């Protein structure tokens, strides 16, 4: 089980989570990127999902990947 945290996502960032129990290979790590507005409700911009099977086997991962929008298309980078 991973502890829930709110992340300030920036490119080329390193994230570490403390694991508080035994990981199962079918578990997933889901990261969601929101646009925060002071006056409007937060809007989901994109998400990323990682199945933890390879982490269970390798014990450590280095991931370079793309966050997808709601239509499963890569978000443009600017």
Structure description:
With 78 residues, this protein is mainly beta. It has one helix and two strands; from the N terminus they run ββα. Helix content is 8%, strand content 22%. The protein is elongated. 1% of the residues are buried. InterPro entries: C2_domain_sf (IPR035892).
SSE topology sketch:
Layout: E1 28-35, E2 43-51, H1 53-58
Antiparallel strand pairs: 1-2
Structure keywords:
78 residues, mainly beta, two-stranded antiparallel sheet, 1 helix, 2 strands
Placed side by side, the strands forming the largest sheet appear as 1-2
List low-confidence stretches: 1-9
Shape descriptor reads elongated
SSE arrangement, N to C: EEH
How many alpha or pi helices?
A: 1
The major sheet is characterized as:
2 strands, antiparallel
Strand tally is 2
Specify the structural class: mainly beta
The overall pLDDT, averaged over residues, is 75
Strand content: 15-25%
Report Rg. 14 Å
**Distance between the amino and carboxyl termini:** 34 Å
Helix content: under 10%
Task: Briefly say what this structure is.
With 78 residues, the protein is mostly beta strands. It has one helix and two strands.
């Amino acid at each position: 089980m991973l502890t829930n945290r709110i992340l300030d996502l920036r490119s080329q960032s390193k994230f570490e989570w403390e694991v508080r129990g035994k990981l199962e290979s079918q578990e997933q790590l889901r990261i969601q990127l929101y646009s925060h507005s002071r006056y409007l409700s937060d809007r989901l911009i994109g998400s990323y999902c990682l199945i933890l099977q390879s982490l269970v086997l390798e014990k450590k991962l280095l991931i370079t990947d793309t966050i997808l929008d709601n239509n499963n298309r890569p978000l443009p980078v600017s």
